[in-house]
Amino acid sequence: MYRFPLARPDDVDAWRGSARAAALANVAPDDISWTVEGETGDLFGGASGDTLPAATLPPFTVPKRFLDLAGDVALHRDPQRFALLYAMLLRLRDHPGAIDDEADPLRRRLDLLAKEVRRDIHKMRAFVRFREIDGAYVAWFEPAHHIVRANAGFFMRRFATMRWSILTPDLSIHWDGETLREAPGATRADAPDGDPVEDLWKGYYASIFNPARLKTGTMLKEMPRRYWANMPETALIPQLVAGAQARETRMVDRIVTGGNMTKSLEALREEAAHCTRCGLYKCATQTVFGEGPADADIMIVGEQPGDQEDLAGKPFVGPAGQMLDRAMAAAGVDRSRVYVTNAVKHFKFEPRGKRRIHAKPNAGEISACRWWIDQERAIITPKRTIMLGTTAIHSLLGKSLTLTSQRGRDLVLPDGGVARATIHPSFLLRMPDKSRADEEFAMFVEDLKAAAK
Ligand code: URA
């Protein structure tokens, strides 16, 4: 009997190394005991096993899909998981196509384990609740599987500038804003009582709530009512549910009445909510999609959502949006008749203390996001487009150009639309000289008037 001890319950790398050596030596699954420190199931009570013989078979490769599957399955609590994976590895060694056999009972069992793990990962992301103690944030969570380490990156990116700890029975993780530290498991008594940090979670929850997929029964199963009392965002549920139903009704109406462009815009918005075309989605709260009537004559394109837009999920609602509103009102342009959107749909920022400082999107991010703006434009087909600043120009004209070279004249876009370029309203917010800012504001208003005419 060969005994392969694994130091950690989620140690898929150690499993891979031992499994590969055993497979090359043609060791049968029943001749191996996979033991994880602290887990039951080691029939040999820690006795050392036989020495593995030398490889007798030539090296082989397995499909990447299997490695991904193994990465998930290794996190399951089932004590048989490593033995099952090894049995699958041997099958793939001899028949690489076996990975496609969805009817195979072993493959199905592994798929089920992986699915349970992914569900647990999602639950942790959705249900961890921080309480604040002396400027640090602490949460207690009881995962069903060994997912804490695998989920740490998500929380590091999402709450990069906070000091936080997530305590769980098997493993605790601590982030000080720079380094992640692991510590042994904790008990519920180690976690503080008190109110969860409400704003943090309301903004986050409203963004991950997906009205189009709302199924109240499923929601109750995922988030049993007994947990609701601890969750500040549950106050939002009735409102979100009501909104979801109204939205669904509108969508069904449109389908029944033959459909029109608005239906496509809704579908596009829903698709964009899950966008991972560039890395910006990892740190932003949510996709901020365009807003306005699908039959708008005018489209305004900004750069990217700012801090407030990121939290609200709507374009141009923060300080730059208020400046834009003032200028539009002065130019006689009714915002409710305009489709307002951004070249880049996720907020790019650098954390500084508790603040998130705007960072300019790069050419790759602009280009990745053109996927969405091209489709918005195809649906809306605006008569006139107003590009606010150089990122919008870059996005719509397809190359980096200065504002001065493009301002003050009609431009024909590659999709045939007519556009004008002007300043971005945040430029006015940054001007310290009041009289220069007034002059620039007046020119901005003239640009909007000329563009909308
Ligand atoms: N700046 C932009 O370019 N877009 C917004 O939505 C907000 C600020």
Structure commentary:
This protein has 453 residues and is an alpha/beta fold. It folds into four domains: 2-120, no CATH class; 128-190, no CATH class; 197-245, no CATH class; 277-452, Uracil-DNA Glycosylase, subunit E (3-Layer(aba) Sandwich), CATH 3.40.470. It has 17 helices and 14 strands. The protein has helices at 12-24, 64-73, 81-94, 105-127, 148-158, 198-208, 216-222, 225-228, 237-256, 261-272, 307-312, 319-331, 363-380, 389-397, 403-406, 425-429, 434-452; strands at 2-6, 32-36, 131-133, 136-140, 163-167, 171-175, 180-184, 298-302, 338-342, 349-352, 355-358, 384-388, 411-412, 418-422. A five-stranded mixed beta sheet has the order 3-4-5-6-7, with helices on one face. A hairpin with a 4-residue loop joins strand 6 and strand 7. Helix 12 packs across helix 17 and helix 13 packs across helix 14 (389-397). It binds uracil (URA). Uracil binds next to helix 12. Uracil binds at residues 302-306, 309, 315-316, 318, 320-321, 342, 426.
Protein topology:
Layout: E1 2-6, H1 12-24, E2 32-36, H2 64-73, H3 81-94, H4 105-127, E3 131-133, E4 136-140, H5 148-158, E5 163-167, E6 171-175, E7 180-184, H6 198-208, H7 216-222, H8 225-228, H9 237-256, H10 261-272, E8 298-302, H11 307-312, H12 319-331, E9 338-342, E10 349-352, E11 355-358, H13 363-380, E12 384-388, H14 389-397, H15 403-406, E13 411-412, E14 418-422, H16 425-429, H17 434-452
Parallel strand pairs: 1-2, 4-5, 8-9, 8-12, 12-14
Antiparallel strand pairs: 3-4, 5-6, 6-7, 10-11, 13-14
The structure holds uracil.
Uracil binds at residues 302-306, 309, 315-316, 318, 320-321, 342, 426.
